[in-house]
Design goal:
Elements (H helix, E strand, L loop, with lengths): L19 H9 L3 H13 L3 H12 L9
Helix pairs in contact: 1-2, 2-3
Amino acid sequence: MDNNIRRLTRSTSDRRIAGVCGGIAQYLNVDVTVIRILFLFALIFGGFGFWAYIIVWLAAPEDNRLNR
């Protein structure tokens, strides 16, 4: 099996609440600020950001890196 499979995980090193935005930013290889702003816009315009954050928080495991 290929050990380079990318998985969506919650970040333990770049977190504000649960590490969801940090994990998505690592997965997409973009700046975490961009993801946080997108979640903020989704929260303000329609409320989808809140539910998306909660779903990813519950579904995605924490990463296993020890870089705290």
